[in-house]
Structure formats: C-alpha cells, structure tokens
C-alpha cells in the first residue's frame, strides 16, 4: 500500500511540473498606461510613452522601465539574493547596489501584502491568467493577473509578487493619491538573452548608498 501511495505522489508531482512551464530564458514586453490621474502633469510626464521589459536568463531577471523622462533597470539574482538598480535622468546615471538584506529593506513597502485570489480568468498575450487583489501598507491597491502555467527560476525579482504561484502578466497599482497605472504584457518570447544584460556596470555611473 505504501509503495502505491509513493508512486501516486510521484506521478502527481510530475503532472504539476509538466503543467507548469519554467521560463529559463526569454523576454516579456509590457505596455504601460495611466488609467486614472493622467491629467496630473507630473504623472503624465513620468508614464506617457513608457514601456517595461522583463528579461530572464536562468536565475537572473532584469526589469527595464523606460519613459521619455527617466529610465530604471532593476537586476536580481535569485541564487545569491543580491540585486542592483540603475537609474537614469537626462545624461546622469546612478547605481544602487542592494546586497542581501538591503534588497529586502529597499522593498520593505511590500512586506505583509496578502493577495486574495479570485476565480476570474483573463487571456493575456496568449496565456490564461488568474486574478488576485491586494493592499499594501501605505494604502496602495493592487490588481494582478498571473499565469500559473508559467514560472521562472528568478522567482522573487519583484518582491511585490513573490507570494503568487506564477508569472504576473498584468497588474494595476492605485496609489493613495488615486493614481492608477497599468502594466500589461503584450508578448512573451522564449528566446536567448545576452548575459551581459545582467552585469553590473563598472564605469559611467555615480554610486549611491542605500541610505540615499
């Protein structure tokens, strides 16, 4: 009897692994739009014409946000738990290294968020996604659509979604001021990504300390 139970559990685990595809290398392109509060000049200048790209290679992930006003790249290594952020405004580039505990401290605003999962389904970039809603400590509200058929080795690249069992393909964040910004995947490509994309720059940037 014990032998059959063990075999049954093994088959169940195998089926789960088969059902969920691990994205070991690829690119996810997101469109960015302001759903509410776009009449605010500062919001409009920060998000109008913006794009976001997620690059994945093995246990590393890079999230690139670009707008006419500014750009920011966040790189995370799930194996080491280390990351860094590159911010650019005009011609100035700044580098903030976040090793170990500092990565968690920097994203402290996401601590304690609990998502309520719903049965609502939505097709995004060819994948079926499930809906979840949550609220951050600062009052910001989040609506998320995540795909349980896709996962990645670099899980945790965005601490906001670390508790969700799948790749987030759409999300909306409404801040306490009532501004709502939406990020929606337009394409998911399983393609090779240059490893140089995830390397920390050694020159051409101004170093920032975590306290700054």
Key terms:
212 residues, disordered N terminus, two-stranded parallel ribbon, twelve-stranded mixed sheet, 3 helices, mainly beta, single chain
Terminal CA distance reads: 61 Å
Major sheet strand order: 8-9-10-12-13-2-3-4-5-6-7-14
What is the beta-strand fraction? over 45%
Which spans of ≥5 residues are poorly predicted at pLDDT below 50?
1-18
Tell me the number of structural domains. 1
Order of helices and strands: HEEHEEEEEHEEEEEEE
* Main beta-sheet annotation: 12 strands, mixed
CATH level-3 fold name: outer membrane lipoprotein receptor (LolB), chain A
Indicate the multimeric state.
single chain
- State the helix count: 3
The CATH architecture can be named as Clam
State the share of residues found in helices, binned by percent.
Answer: 10-25%
Secondary structure: number of strands: 14
**What's the pLDDT, averaged over the residues?**
88
Overall outline: globular
CATH class: Mainly Beta
Secondary-structure content class = mainly beta
How large is the radius of gyration? Answer: 19 Å
In words, what does this structure look like?
The chain has helices at residues 2-19, 41-47, 101-106, and strands at 21-23, 25-36, 51-57, 60-66, 71-77, 82-89, 92-98, 116-124, 127-135, 141-147, 150-152, 167-174, 180-189, 206-208. By secondary structure, the chain is mainly β. It has a single domain (21-193), classed as Clam (outer membrane lipoprotein receptor (LolB), chain A). A 12-stranded mixed β-sheet has the order 8-9-10-12-13-2-3-4-5-6-7-14. Strands 1-11 form a two-stranded parallel ribbon. The radius of gyration is 19 Å and the shape is globular. It starts with a helix and ends with a strand. The model is unreliable at 1-18 (pLDDT under 50).
């Amino acid at each position: 009897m014990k032998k059959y139970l063990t075999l049954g559990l093994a088959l169940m685990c195998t089926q789960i692994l088969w059902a969920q595809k691990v994205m070991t290398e690829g690119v996810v392109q997101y469109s960015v739009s302001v759903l509410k509060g776009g009449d605010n000049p500062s919001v409009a200048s920060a998000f109008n014409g913006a794009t976001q790209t997620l690059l994945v290679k093995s246990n590393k992930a890079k999230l690139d946000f670009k707008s006419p006003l500014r750009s920011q790249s966040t790189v995370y290594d799930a194996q080491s738990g280390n990351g860094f952020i590159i911010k650019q405004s005009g011609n100035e580039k700044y580098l903030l290294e976040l090793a170990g505990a500092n990565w968690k401290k920097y994203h402290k605003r996401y601590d304690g968020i609990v998502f309520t999962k719903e049965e609502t389904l939505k097709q995004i970039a060819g994948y079926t996604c499930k809906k979840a809603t949550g609220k951050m400590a600062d009052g910001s509200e989040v609506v998320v659509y995540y795909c349980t058929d896709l996962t990645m080795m670099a899980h945790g690249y965005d601490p906001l979604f670390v508790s969700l069992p799948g790749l987030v393909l759409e999300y909306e964040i409404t801040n306490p001021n009532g501004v709502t910004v939406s990020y929606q995947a337009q394409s998911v490509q399983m393609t090779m990504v240059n490893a140089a994309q995830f390397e920390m720059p050694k020159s051409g940037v101004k170093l920032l300390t975590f306290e700054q």
